Amino acid sequence: MSVLRDLSVLLRFRNFRRLLGIRLLSQGADGVYQVALAAYVVFSPEKQTSATAIASAMAVLLLPYSLVGPFAGALLDRWRRRQVFLYGNLSRSLLACATAVLMLSHVPDWLFYVSALCVTAVNRFVLAGLSAALPRVVDDERLVMANSLSPTAGTLAATAGGSLAFAVRLVAADSDAAVVLLAAALYLGAALTSLSLAPGLLGPDREAAPPRLGAALTGTFRDMVAGVRHLAAPARRETAWALAAMTLMRFCYGALLVLLLMLCRYALSSSSDQGLALLGLALGVSGAGFFAAAVVTPWAAGRLRPGGWIVVCAASAAVLEPALGLPFATGPMLVAAFVLGLTTQGAKISTDTIVQHTVEDAFRGRVFSVYDVLFNVAFVGAAAVAALMLPPDGRSAALVVTVACVYAAVAAAMYRFGCR
Fold first, then answer.
1. Which residues 6+ apart lie within 8 Å of 283 measured at CB?
2. How many domains does the chain have?
3. Cβ contacts of residue 92 below 8 Å, gap of 6+?
């Protein structure tokens, strides 16, 4: 198969393998950490979780650190990206240990959320840096394949980390703190792996000495305006439309995730442990969809162009998501999870490729940070909408139909304006 041949060639790039190792360990730790948080916040037997509570938790964790996004971009274009991976993952390892201590101490919820917020805030720097550094370790000919393998492999690593978290939670007598400590160990491994890369290898390019930190922070607004203007150029029209399309698809993903959480917690399970196991199965099936997207997207994007493949992904989700979601049954729900993983990741790979091909290296960190902020705001907005529409057991035909309409609008707009 051509995909396997290209993949074998890509893995011969030594520095790509090392960067991929950082991503796998870092996002694997994210998966472990996120499952621990979900188990502690949503599936604790003593808590009666509602969609509003889930939306509130997402807002606390995501909206504040979305404000870090612009600063992350401005700093990533000045800091050595290898050092971001080293110190970012070291700090997350320490912060995860603090989260474990707070879980065991039964402190007020707000203090727990502050700890989790710090971990996810640092995550903005690491993930944006991984995307911005990718063109520095592969050639242009294989950048599409790299975009398929690297983010998708990271997502699969997060899924595998989540599965490992379930196993540790069972072995450790439902101890969420033990799961968080496992995440801390994986973050430490990612930091140590970054030491295998030369400090200056991953960029960014510098024509002059970088300004001091204070000057970088005060110039953030000006830098972000320049990044937006860079996107607004006629040559990057498809890039702007792809970012808008991916933002709306992220909104759909967030709304369906809240619906899935509520269904697993109440409608499709008789206990919190059974609901958590069902959620783990659904996320695993969705991970298989991510893997399928990694295999299919290079072939599909090569024939349809990345913008055309985004259209196909959105249109497919618009048709299949209500057909599979409206029964509110376990079997169709698992198939819908696979479709959602395939279409969402296929569109994301295409969007990443469009951004990296059209955005200059000096602006890439800022653009990916804007991309990240749009992702998170859309996700929190989706959670808020879902909280308003979902009944206590999670069964909402209105939400399923609304999401299908958004997917259809994305497909139509991207076809009309984004991929001429």
1. 159, 162, 337
2. 1
3. 29, 119, 122, 123, 126, 184, 187
Please write the tens of the pLDDT for every residue from 109-131.
Answer: 778 778 888 888 788 788 878 88
pTM score > 0.70 for this model? yes
Interatomic CA distance for residues 356 and 353, integer angstroms = 5
The identity of residue 67, as a single letter, is L
d(CA 143, CA 132): 12
**CA-to-CA distance for 168 and 149, rounded, in angstroms?**
27
Tokens of 25: 């360990």
d(CA 403, CA 387): 14
Burial class for 383, CB neighbours closer than 10 Å (0-12, 13-18, 19+)? buried
The confidence score (pLDDT) of residue 381 equals 87
pLDDT above 90: percentage of residues in the chain = 23
Question: In this structure, is the dihedral angle defined by the CA atoms of residues 306, 308, 309 and 315, taken in order, positive or negative?
Answer: positive
- DSSP-based helix, strand, coil % in the chain, nearest 5: 85, 0, 15
Long-range contacts of 78-82 (CB under 8 A, 24+ apart): 78/204, 78/210, 78/211, 78/216, 79/210, 80/199, 80/200, 80/202, 80/203, 81/129, 81/132, 81/133, 81/202, 81/203, 81/204, 82/194, 82/197, 82/198, 82/199, 82/200, 82/201, 82/202
Q: Where are the alpha helices (DSSP H) in 211-360?
A: 213-218, 220-232, 237-262, 272-325, 330-358
In terms of residue numbers, what domain contains 284?
A: 2-418
- For residue 187, the domain's CATH number is 1.20.1250.20
